[in-house]
C-alpha cells in the first residue's frame, strides 16, 4: 500500500494504522473509518497518461488510489469496465440537458457490489483469512460468493440473508458454492447474526458498512466513470441509497480525483431512497441522528432500516452541495419498464431507483433544464424476475391461429 498513510475515524478523527482487520474506531460507537492517502506523492508519480497506458481494464487499474499490496493475488473475475451510454431520449423526457447512464449491472455477478467484494477478497488474503462472511439482501452476497469462487476453491464464503431475499440471488449464491444461511427475519437480524458468527469463528468481515476498505472498492465506479467521460464531469451524479456505502464511496472517488488534479470539480450528488425505507433521507433533511425505520419496499437491495454508513453518506451529499429524494415502489416499477423500453437496460428495482429519483428531481426543479446528470444502474433486472414481471406485465396469449392473432393485434394496437 505504497500511498496509504493510515485510517481515521470520521466521528472523532482518531488515527489508526491501515491494518486489514481494523474495521471501526475504538472510541466511538459505530465509528466508521476512512482510508487516507498521500495525494502529493500520487500526483508526483502517477498521471492520466500512466492510467491510459495500463492494459488492465479491471478496477485494479486504479491501484495508486486503492489500499492494496501490489503482490496480493486478485480475484479472477473481470470486475469494472462497465459501459456508459448517452440517452438523449430520456434526457428530453426528463427535461434536462444531458443524461449519461452507467450500467453496473453488467459486472460479473450483475451488480456494482462486485467492486467491494473483489476488494474484500484481496484484504482477506492480506489478513491471512480463508473464510469471508457477510450479511446481505442479495447483491453483496452473490458478489462475494462469485469473487470467492473465482479463487479456485482456496477460500470460502459464508453468507447470511433475510428470508425475503429474491430467488435469483439465492440461486447465484448456491451455484457459486457459498455456505448460505437464510435467516427467518429482517436484514437487521441477519446482520446481527452474521456479526456474532464472524466474531465467534474469526472470519474476515465483508460487511461494507463496517469494513472501511470496501468503500474503497465501491469508489472505483466514479473513478471509472470520470475516465470514461474524459474527466469532464456532469453537474449531478445519481445513486440509489441503502446503507450509504455506495454513495459515500462514489464521493470518496471523486474527492480523490479532485485532490490529485484529474478533475476540476465534484458533481453534486443526488441520493435516492425508497419511500418505504428512507432513514438516511430523513436524517439528511432533519440534521438529527438517524432513526431506525421499517424495510417496506420492493427494492430489496436498498431496504436497510438501520444503515451503518449513514453519516458518511450524509456528509458526502452535503459536501457536494447535493440533495436527497424518495421514490415510491410504483415509480420504481414504472422506471424499470421505461428504462428497458427506451434504452435496452434491464435494471432491478434498487438498480433503477436512482433513475426514478432523477426524473422526480427534474420534475421538482431540483435538477435544472440546463444541467447534465449521470446515473449508475447498480444491479441487473435478472436478479429479481418476480418484480420485473410485475413491472412489465404479461405477454399476449393466443392460439396458433393467424386470424385470431390479427384480431388481438388490432384490438391492442400492435403494428
From TrEMBL:
Q: Which domain of life is it from?
A: Bacteria
Q: What EC number is given for this enzyme?
A: 4.2.3.1
* Molecular-function GO terms, alphabetical: L-serine ammonia-lyase activity; threonine deaminase activity; threonine synthase activity
Which keywords does this Swiss-Prot/TrEMBL entry list? Amino-acid biosynthesis, Lyase, Pyridoxal phosphate, Threonine biosynthesis
List-wise, which residues carry N6-(pyridoxal phosphate)lysine?
113
Group of enzyme by EC: lyase
Provide the protein name.
Threonine synthase
| Native organism | Halanaerobium kushneri
Amino acid at each position: 500500500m505504497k500511498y496509504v498513510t493510515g485510517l481515521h475515524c470520521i466521528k472523532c478523527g482518531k488515527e489508526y494504522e491501515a491494518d486489514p482487520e481494523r474495521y471501526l474506531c475504538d472510541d466511538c460507537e459505530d465509528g466508521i473509518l476512512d482510508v487516507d492517502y498521500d495525494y502529493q506523492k500520487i500526483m508526483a508519480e502517477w498521471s492520466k497518461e500512466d492510467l491510459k497506458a495500463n492494459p488492465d481494464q479491471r478496477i485494479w487499474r486504479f491501484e495508486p488510489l486503492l489500499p492494496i499490496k501490489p503482490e496480493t493475488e486478485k480475484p479472477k473475475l473481470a470486475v469494472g469496465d462497465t459501459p456508459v451510454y448517452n440517452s438523449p431520449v430520456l434526457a428530453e423526457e426528463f427535461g434536462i440537458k444531458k443524461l449519461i447512464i452507467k450500467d453496473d449491472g453488467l459486472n460479473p455477478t450483475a451488480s456494482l457490489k462486485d467492486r467491494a467484494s473483489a476488494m474484500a477478497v484481496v484484504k482477506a488474503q492480506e489478513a491471512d483469512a480463508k473464510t469471508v462472511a457477510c450479511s446481505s439482501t442479495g447483491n453483496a452476497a452473490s458478489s462475494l460468493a462469485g469473487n470467492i469462487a473465482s479463487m479456485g476453491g482456496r477460500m470460502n464464503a459464508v453468507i447470511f440473508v433475510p428470508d425475503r431475499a429474491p430467488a435469483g440471488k439465492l440461486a447465484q449464491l448456491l451455484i457459486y458454492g457459498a455456505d448460505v444461511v437464510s435467516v427467518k427475519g429482517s436484514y437487521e437480524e441477519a446482520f446481527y447474526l452474521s456479526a456474532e458468527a464472524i466474531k465467534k469463528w474469526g472470519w474476515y468481515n465483508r460487511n461494507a458498512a463496517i469494513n472501511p476498505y470496501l468503500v474503497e472498492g465501491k469508489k472505483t465506479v466514479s473513478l471509472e466513470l470520470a475516465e470514461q467521460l474524459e474527466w469532464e464531469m456532469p453537474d449531478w451524479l445519481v445513486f440509489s441509497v441503502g446503507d450509504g456505502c455506495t454513495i459515500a464511496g462514489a464521493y470518496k472517488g471523486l474527492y480523490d480525483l479532485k485532490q490529485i488534479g484529474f478533475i476540476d470539480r465534484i458533481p453534486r450528488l443526488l441520493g435516492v431512497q425508497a419511500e418505504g425505507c428512507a432513514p438516511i433521507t430523513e436524517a439528511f433533511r432533519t440534521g438529527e441522528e438517524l432513526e431506525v425505520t421499517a424495510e417496506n419496499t420492493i427494492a430489496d437491495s436498498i431496504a436497510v432500516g438501520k444503515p451503518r454508513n449513514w453519516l458518511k453518506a450524509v456528509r458526502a451529499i452535503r459536501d457536494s452541495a447535493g440533495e436527497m429524494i424518495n421514490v415510491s415502489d410504483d415509480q420504481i416499477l414504472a422506471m424499470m419498464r421505461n428504462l428497458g423500453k427506451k434504452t435496452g437496460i434491464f435494471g432491478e428495482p434498487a438498480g433503477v431507483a436512482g433513475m426514478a429519483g432523477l426524473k422526480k428531481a427534474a420534475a421538482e426543479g431540483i435538477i435544472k433544464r440546463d444541467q447534465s446528470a449521470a446515473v449508475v444502474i447498480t444491479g441487473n433486472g435478472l436478479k429479481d424476475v418476480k418484480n420485473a414481471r410485475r413491472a412489465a406485465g404479461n405477454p399476449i396469449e393466443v392460439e396458433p391461429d393467424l386470424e385470431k392473432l390479427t384480431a388481438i393485434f388490432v384490438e391492442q394496437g400492435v403494428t
